[in-house]
TrEMBL record:
Database matches in Gene3D superfamilies: 1.20.5.1930, Histidine kinase-like ATPase, C-terminal domain
CDD domains xrefs: HATPase_UhpB-NarQ-NarX-like
The keyword Aminoacyl-tRNA synthetase is assigned to this record: no
Source organism (scientific name): Actinomadura viridis
Highest taxon above the source species: Bacteria
Name of the protein described by the UniProt record: histidine kinase
Length: 406
């Protein structure tokens, strides 16, 4: 398979195919532009011989200023050449204030003063290979006009010319590849800076998605709290009132009322837990200390809570911290067989640290698909770090650090 591909590629670079002539034309078209900067720098000395200090200074500085001004137009011409002849689109580097001091500008100068001339000599070598190969290959046709040559010499010159003609397409391809690569690297956007910009853009978009999801959770929480929960409260109260006041009701009907009342109370409790899980209102109103105190009070274990947050973080970060503690406590109650839990939430600078430690059996492993896996994803969604230490036999410590710059 590889040999077939190589054979097809070789067929595309024989002298009579179109690709070598396109590559040669592309390489040759760059020669005037690639020598342009040096031509400007050398021109004053070729046409003028300054002898005094001021003329010498002018002859030195004026060409430099001209090259500085023409650097970007020449670069644009090279990019247009790539598009017109190769179909290669090279966007210009991002312009910034003080463009003569930017890294992109120095890359443009590096092309004009270093890479460009080298590529121009390569293009000239391609032209010489074509011209010299054709001249040597056809030496037998005009040998009569040359000094006497033996048949062996004519044959040797002809074979050398054929070899040059066969090598010229590959040389043209190599020069074309190097030229196109140099244009992309030196005259196009800085790849590292472009990747950095894309990473920043993706981070901003992800932060926007996270914030939007948090806003949507709060909206659903308000809708459930003000709508469905109030209806359930009214239903439970009416059923409780009926249960307490109705007399003379058949036992079967009363049993139905009692069961409906109990179901309504359970549904109301589940609704409150659901609302609290979406986004507790106390978190938004009173902050982490009050919200975490409410969680700790509902845990059937002794909980030592310490919250030291001088400045509140964003609502998104606070929500992540709240759910870290909530999920960690749920896991402790369900799986750890612990006798106590310690929670510490502190803010130092722009980092909010959350630590939940228990003295349980240990052995918690996020890779087994527990709720800790989703918790880790939620922490990483705001560029936080999630770490759990849980050897067999305990204790277990969940540590989370959240950036507060969101």
């Amino acid at each position: 398979m590889a040999s077939v591909s190589l054979l097809r590629r070789a067929r595309g670079y024989v002298p009579w195919s179109a690709a070598p002539w396109r590559d040669t034309a592309f390489a040759a078209s760059g020669v005037p532009l690639q020598f342009g900067a040096w031509a400007v720098l050398i021109a004053p000395w070729a046409i003028w011989e300054p002898v005094r200090a001021v003329p010498v200074l002018i002859a030195l500085l004026a060409p430099v200023l001209v090259v500085a001004v023409l650097a970007h137009p020449l670069a644009s011409a090279h990019r247009e050449r790539c598009w017109a002849m190769l179909g290669l689109h090279v966007p210009p580097p991002e312009e910034r204030p003080g463009r003569f001091r930017t890294e992109g500008y120095w890359r443009v100068l590096a092309y004009h003063l270093l890479a460009g001339p080298v590529l121009a000599f390569g293009a000239m070598a391609v032209i010489v290979a074509w011209a010299g190969g054709a001249a040597l290959a056809g030496v037998g046709a005009y040998a009569w006009a040359l000094p006497p040559l033996t048949a062996f010499q004519v044959a040797a010159f002809s074979m050398g010319g054929v070899a040059l003609l066969l090598a010229a397409p590959w040389l043209a391809m190599a020069v074309r590849n190097m030229d196109a690569r140099a244009v992309v690297v030196l005259l196009g956007p800085d790849r590292a800076r472009e990747l950095e910009r894309r990473v920043e853009d993706l981070a901003e978009k992800r932060a926007g998605v996270v914030d939007a999801a948090d806003i949507e959770r709060r909206r659903i929480e308000r809708d459930l709290h003000d709508g469905a929960q109030q209806r359930l409260v009214a239903l439970a109260m009416n059923l409780g009132l009926a249960r307490e006041t109705l007399t003379g009701v058949p036992d079967d009907a009363m049993r139905v009322i009692v069961e409906a009342h109990e179901e309504a109370k359970e549904a109301l409790a589940e609704m409150r837990d659901l609302i609290r899980g979406l986004h507790p209102a106390v978190l938004e109103d009173r902050g982490l200390d009050a919200a975490l105190s409410g969680i700790a009070a509902r845990v059937p274990l002794p909980v030592r809570l310490r919250v030291d947050v001088p400045r509140r973080a964003s609502s998104t970060v606070e929500a992540v911290a709240y759910f870290v503690v909530s999920e960690a406590l749920t896991n402790v109650v369900r799986h750890a067989r612990a006798s106590k839990v310690e929670i510490e939430v502190t803010r130092r600078g722009d980092v909010l640290s959350v630590s939940v430690a228990d003295d349980g059996a240990g052995g918690a492993d996020p890779s087994k698909g527990s709720g800790l896996t989703g918790l880790g994803r939620r922490v990483r969604s705001v560029d936080g770090t999630f770490r759990i230490v849980s050897p067999e036999g305990g204790p277990t410590t969940v540590t989370v650090e959240l950036p507060c710059v969101l």
